[in-house]
Amino acid sequence: MSASYTVEDQQRMTRAKNYFAWQAGLVLPELGRRVLEIGCGIGNFTELLVDRDAVIAVDSSADCIEILKSRCPSAHAFALDAQSDALVDLARWEPDSCALLNVLEHIEDDAGLLGRIAAMLPSHGVIVLLTPAFSSLYGPIDRNLGHYRRYSRAAIEQVARSAGLRIRKIRYVNALGFFGWWINAHVLKRQAQSESQIEIFDRLAPLMARLEGVMPPPFGQSFFAVIEKP
After folding, report:
1. What is the domain partition of the chain in residue ranges?
2. What is the pTM of this model?
3. CATH code for the domain defined by 2-228
4. How confident is the model at residue 1 (pLDDT cuts 50, 70, 90)?
5. Which of 30, 79, 125, 128 has the most CB atoms less than 10 A away?
6. What pLDDT was estimated at residue 2?
7. Residue 198 pLDDT > 70, yes or no?
């Protein structure tokens, strides 16, 4: 979860406005009115949810939660390990959907987490996922971020079934990032993403969002998926 990203890392990412706009365009239309966000970090995405009826924000880092509370005072924010059984106590807020954005890859028992979330959702409630794609892209950055895995389409379908969920929508996103991540992992062998790379990516994000909105790519750095409770 976001504990693998330092507060400083996340504060640097606040400058990636175009990236978050792209992410929001994908994710926000799929979420309901009462949103559980797991791995919220310092609130870079949470602040886009403040128009909802309820936002329940969870992160394993107490420092992140303190920053989030100042940015999003209307959110119900909790420092909590999502792998704990205590997560289901948040059912009292009656979430109808959940955002897991670049989080599931940090969870060893990913099916267990999805099952705990599903137990809180009503019938036809959704979990919106953004997860890294292609195990062939796994490299030092993934390891340093605490990623247990990168996903294939079949792996997402399997973990969803294991949690009693079904796929409503799944597609690749960020085809250009696929090449950048491969170069980082196998050529440059970078230990972390550079600020210059983040800046270049953010400048290109609006163009990529338009192109991929017209024609979803056949591959990408990540998967965007919406999974549903029957």
Report:
1. 2-228
2. 0.93
3. 3.40.50.150
4. very low
5. 128
6. 44
7. yes
